[in-house]
Design goal:
Blueprint (H helix, E strand, L loop, with lengths): L10 E2 L16 E4 L13 H4 L8 H7 L3 E10 L19 H9 L12 E13 L3 E5 H4 L4 E5 L7 E3 L1 E6 L4 E5 L22 E6 L7 E12 L9 E4 L11 E3 L5 E10 L8 E5 H14 L5 E2 L2 E4 L3 H6 L8 E6 L4 H5 L6 E5 L2 E2 L5 H8 L5 E8 L2 E8 L1 E2 L22 E3 L4 E5 L2 H6 L9 E6 L4 H4 L8 E5 L2 E2 L3 H13 L4 E8 L2 E8 L4
Antiparallel strand pairs: 1-4, 2-14, 3-4, 3-6, 4-5, 5-9, 6-7, 8-9, 10-11, 10-13, 11-12, 12-15, 13-14, 14-15, 16-23, 17-18, 18-19, 19-20, 19-21, 21-22, 24-25, 25-26, 26-27, 27-28, 27-29, 29-30
Protein name: Probable periplasmic serine endoprotease DegP-like
Keywords: Hydrolase, Periplasm, Protease, Repeat, Serine protease, Signal, Stress response
Catalytic activity: Acts on substrates that are at least partially unfolded. The cleavage site P1 residue is normally between a pair of hydrophobic residues, such as Val-|-Val
Length: 516
């Protein structure tokens, strides 16, 4: 996702906005926000429970505001050298911070090592989820902070030092704890699974450091993927959300939290009615685990998957392009132990339909470690169900290991594969050096892709790709590829399913099969 920027996302004390620096962006950016929210657990009056817009949101706001807090952080940051194009300030840990740091670093002179560091303060939002003083906010609001303070929404503006109970960078959530010496007003979780597109919602937070602010809108969409992480499943709302709103709650008309305001799309940094909130169905489980152990345990299946294109669906003899296509099975993982194989198409997991490769990781992550779940799949045109006992996701499990190889084949002259538009050769030491292939890579190497072939036009294949399978059958030589292609053509197939290894990852590609 390419997203440019004209203003910083968070408020900084004593610093001008980046808009004044003349930075004008031409592409969109998802802005992470920072702000607080609160709600008292009181039954909603009939006027608010009814469908449609209430006569006034005031009763709801009066009940929720006491449980909303401002989150203030202080940290030491290194000043950069003088530059004609200053980089806008992003919340630490935001998905876009690294992208824009790289972008601006390429345009700026080297920073002066003699420039002394400075103390920076940022303001965000949060809400109390338990009267004992547990506060929910975004991880990017407090990430890297030397000190965190929570400011209550009471007459005194009570300011309390906060302790970090736990953070989860994968979902951008954090749990804090304050000691007020008394019970605090708190919000309760709502069910985001029941919220519908078009339902009224209210967002509360700390935009631009102004303190508790209430805006209303509707749910514009569900299950949004904005490229922030592997578990993206955002609620989209047109309730006005601005810089400083991150960590604040999105509530339904009963006053229950159904989302945590996290990001916006904007050209200016201000609200244009496209905001995103982490759904409570995800946040509730994460926060509960952070409170219990300070960390999050996630289920692990042990597969690398991809979406299914219409061409791949045809090659796999699927009725429709739906499900998650298994490209690689982690050796020794839960999937391998259950008998899953590359080329399997996962249709459902634990009774829930898998529509694409984005939905499956969320399902697996939310499932308790050690649980035995049924996985329905299609293998070579036949429907099967296997039982998988989930493992626990570890950092090293994110990058799947390569399968062991079987040595190099004898070198040979590249073979042109008619109807596919590629030339291939066996893997020799020379070819391995030329294309920088690891020692354990096996298969047949693509040495050339015809410029006007379908594979080139769609950018599916490239020189250096290693063909591991053709039509779900292993290949070890160019002759194997020729034979599999002939077999597919004789069977009347319009597309050829290839399993490709590229830079240590396995991916399926359905390449149109043209006439010779």
């Amino acid at each position: 996702m390419t997203l440019p920027v004209t203003q910083p996302v968070r408020s900084r004390s004593g610093r001008p906005d980046a808009a004044g620096a003349g930075v004008q962006a031409r592409r969109w950016i998802a802005w992470l926000l920072l702000l607080p929210l609160a709600a008292v657990m009181v039954a909603a009056p009939p006027a608010l429970a009814q469908r449609g817009a209430p006569e006034s949101f005031a009763p709801l706001a009066e009940r929720i505001l006491p449980a909303v807090v401002n989150v203030s952080t202080t940290q030491t940051v290194q000043n950069r050298g003088r530059s004609p194009v200053p980089m806008p300030e992003f919340p630490p840990g935001s998905p876009f911070e690294e992208f824009f740091r790289d972008f601006f670093d390429r345009q700026q002179p080297q920073q002066d090592p003699n420039t002394p560091p400075r103390r920076a303060t940022s303001l965000g939002s949060g809400f109390i989820i338990d009267p004992a003083g547990y506060v929910v906010t975004n991880n990017h609001v407090i990430d890297g902070a030397d000190e965190i303070r929570v400011i209550l929404h009471d007459q005194e503006g009570t300011e309390l030092k906060a302790e970090v109970i736990g953070v989860d960078k994968e979902t951008d959530l954090a749990l804090l704890k304050v000691d007020a010496g008394r019970k605090l007003p708190a919000l309760s979780w709502g069910d985001s699974e029941k919220i519908r597109v078009g339902d009224w919602v209210v967002a509360i937070g700390n935009p631009f450091g102004l303190g508790g602010s209430v805006t209303a809108g509707i749910i514009s969409a569900r299950a949004r993927d904005i490229g922030a992480g592997r578990y993206d499943d955002f609620l989209q709302t047109d309730a006005s959300i601005n810089r400083g709103n991150s960590g604040g709650p999105l509530v339904n008309l009963s006053g229950d939290v159904i989302g945590i305001n996290t990001a916006i799309f904007s050209q200016t940094g201000g609200s244009i009615g496209i905001g995103f909130a982490i759904p409570s169905a995800m946040a509730k489980n994460v926060i509960a685990q952070l409170r219990e152990s300070g960390k999050v345990r996630r289920g692990w299946l042990g597969v690398q998957i991809q979406n299914i294109s219409p061409e791949e669906a045809e090659a796999l003899r699927l009725p429709e392009a739906k499900g998650a296509l298994v490209g690689m099975v982690n050796p020794g993982g839960p999937a391998e132990k259950a008998g899953l194989q590359p080329g399997d198409v996962i249709l459902s997991f634990d009774g829930r339909e898998v529509t694409n490769s984005r939905s499956l990781p969320r399902m697996v992550a939310d499932t308790p470690v050690g649980k035995k779940v049924p996985v329905e799949l299609i293998r070579r045109g036949k429907r099967e169900t296997v039982q998988v006992v989930l493992g626990e996701l570890q950092p090293q499990d994110v990058q799947l290991a390569n399968a062991p190889g079987q040595g190099d084949a004898a070198p040979g002259k590249p073979e042109t594969i008619e109807g596919v538009g590629i030339a291939v050769t066996s893997i020799s030491p020379e070819v391995r050096r030329q294309f920088e292939l690891d020692d354990d890579v096996k298969g047949v190497v693509i040495t050339q892709v015809a410029p006007n072939s379908p594979a080139a036009v769609r950018q599916q294949l490239r020189a250096g790709d290693v063909i591991v399978e053709v039509s779900q059958e292993e290949v070890g030589s160019p002759a194997d590829v020729v034979a599999r292609v002939k077999k597919a053509r004789d069977a009347g197939q319009k597309a050829l399913l290839l399993l490709i290894e590229r830079r240590g990852e396995l991916v399926f590609q359905a390449v149109p099969l043209t006439e010779e």
